[in-house]
Amino acid sequence: MRRFRTRLLSQERSRPRGIHRCLPEQSPLGAHQRTVSGARAVTLGLFPLNLVLFPHVRLPLHIFEPRYKALINGCLERGLEFGINLVEDGHLHPVGCAARVVEQVKRYPDGRLDIVIEGTRRFRLLELVPSEMPFAVGTVEDFPDEQGASGVPLLETVLERYNRIVTLVYGIGAPTFTTDQLTDTPSFELAPKAGLSVQQKQGLLETPSEEARLRMLDGHLNDMLPSIIKAENIQRIIRNDGYMRR
Asked: pTM for the whole thing?
């Protein structure tokens, strides 16, 4: 972790701000190779953020920094993915999520962009690589799930708790999930709206099995439910009586 922090900050300081050029034709971004273990590795432009992106989840972004305008424009021009890693106090978490731009909402006269991205797959950052790009570049390898139980039996329980909480918080008619609406990794789609902290989301992203992730969500939702029910009961009393009775 420390080496990513030191090298990332060093690279960011050394790059001149205000560079608007996009990726050169000979850019190493997108180059494929194999690691010693045989896993697929690829070179990605990195977009460190104080948030966690999950596969299959969409996220709106406003791009305003010159270095990230260069990154996004280059990815749009060449159909490339880029990587999002959680950064906290200068510490870059190695496990991140690759993303692609699925919608350009608006392009401003000064080059700023409103876009929507979608997470595609998890990766592990192996190393930061030297680059002339104004943004950090890293070699990453795929971070697939371990083989094992799918967690399907637990999914019904998690969905029941999740949908109940959504209904309690947002009211009848709020968007809920059914099993046929979800992919083969439903934990990633439930996590953004499950009330997890950034650290809990990162922990979930790093967990290498769907069953284990669903167990984490189940425990979290089970812990949340009593306090939400209590708060809802209080609000119901206030709505019915206009004041609290002892």
From this structure: 0.81
